[in-house]
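Incident review: delayed structure delivery

Summary: a single-chain prediction request sat in the queue longer than the usual turnaround. Root cause was a stuck worker, restarted by the on-call engineer. No data loss occurred. The affected request and its eventual output are reproduced below so the record is complete for anyone auditing the incident later.

Affected input:
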Amino acid sequence: MLDGVSSVWCFLGLQLPERSASFNVSHNTCKMLQSLALIIAIWCGGAAFEQNIEVLHSEIKFLGDNLKPQNIASRPDAHLAPFLMHWEKPLARSDDELRAVMDTKNPLQIFSQAFRLLVRYQRTKDESALVRATMLIDYMLDGYKPSEVSSGVKRWLYGFDYKSYVDIRSPWWSGMPDFFGPLVLYAAWEITKNPRYLYASVGSAKLALLGPEQGGVIWRSSKGCWISSYVWNNISDQQEFFVLNGHLWGLQALYLLASATGEKALRDGYECARRGFFNRELDFYNNEKSWTWYQLNPKVINPTHYNLLELAQFRALRLITGDRAYRRSENARRVAFERGYPLVVSRGRDGQLWVNFSMIGPPHPYWTDTYAVNVNCFTNGVRISRTGDKQYSSHSLDQRLVVRFPIPKRPSQCQLAVENGVDVYVYKKDKFLVVEDSKQLTEGGQLSGVGLDARSARKNRVVIARRAKVLSGSTDSLNDEARITFSVEGKLGSDAMLAIVLRSEKRVPLGMFLEDRHGVRSSRYYPALEPNLDNIVIVNRLGFDGNDALVSAPESLTLRVYTANVTDDFSIDVVGYYLLSGPVDVNAFFLKHAGAHFIQQ
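Output delivered after worker restart:
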């Protein structure tokens, strides 16, 4: 009889779930689903999948997660945090704002807006939010271009070019909206019971399971599956970037959809993509295991906000799947962030205790992308809280970039979270060594040499004289840069920062490289020096391309001042050169150079 039930079930377009460690489906659950399948088959007389889809999916859940049954849009913040973090425009509230979202030609951004509106409706019963959400969803089904229709279901393409390591021309597509879009459609069906949302959801998700050469987003290999973030016509597997946050975005959406629908094809896709990550998990750590890679081909260091997004993604996957294997990567990102962005208690000369947190740190200190930070400390049972959200305000540098507040005694615990539309817990600390709140900064070393267009300097003033030679029969100059070298004496670890204050008479582009005692170099770009201002230049070792290639700790830092567009001689003064080892140093530095110019990306 059970074989007959399975046949009926398959005829209806669904597959019986098999036992899986990731989904934790019990034998009793399977028997319940089998009995329900038989009842539906008798009731419907073997009707087609499309005709009975709303009946089937209103009764059946793939009970693989911890909270069941539960609508997708009603899940708690910790489950949905990656999808709710506001990395794009605020919620549309007017027709004009709604049209602006539609006009982005960005399917991920449009689906993200729709999903956040569905969540708002589910939590507040704000009918206008549901109206705006369904307007966006109907637009994606009926009006969005560029798009393609295959087997009666739609795939959404990006309507703009994307310049990356290759020039990606529109139309291109991605596993982020290709799995998240179907999840949003399913969440809309759960609320509205509009059957076309459900049909489009399952059909589009199955289309995304195909390989990139067939219009899908899944690369399959002996290591498992990888959900591609950037796919274009005629892409080869050698061109795959292996972007981690995009894979995790699609992986979470695929799990939630497979769990809700019970579709075997989606479940198998999740299992394959899960295996694809864990077979590459260790590839995403740098040699020191102190930070992670954003992608693997080519390797790009993770900006801070992507480290935080991935932390939220691994936490969400652990919570919704019950799969403890995700905890490793979650904790690794938590530890990396705490090392680079620690909470420190300091004591002033008057004995006052202060809590300190720096908004700048590895790998790109000028890219203040830690979102808004919430610091909560507890002492004598009392909570003392502060929020750091002034990075791009007109406040002084120390107020913008350091969260610092007094506390009556050493705290029993401090907790740190980031807020970007939703609170994301990052780490807690319950043991504090009190450091002295000194205003004396550690000198980073001395200017140790100059080269090419830079002449020897007196009193830290370097004269730049354009003297490029032109090769015979060529318009290319033999050299078009000045080099200014500082000794770092092996002090620049993965967490410390070098802060240099430079005053240039000309606006000049800037680059730099670190060099170890074996002559191995790692280099990086830096924003241009602005003329006649004290320019703050802050770097961390992790932000240098090729940092993993260094055989030993860096011995020198060389600034590359590009002179190709400079005709007159000019000078650069080295106003200050410091080693910053934590938030107390950062605060002291910004107080010392309160009027300096600091580029923020």
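Verification: The longest helix spans residues 27-44.
Action items: add queue-age alerting; document worker restart procedure.
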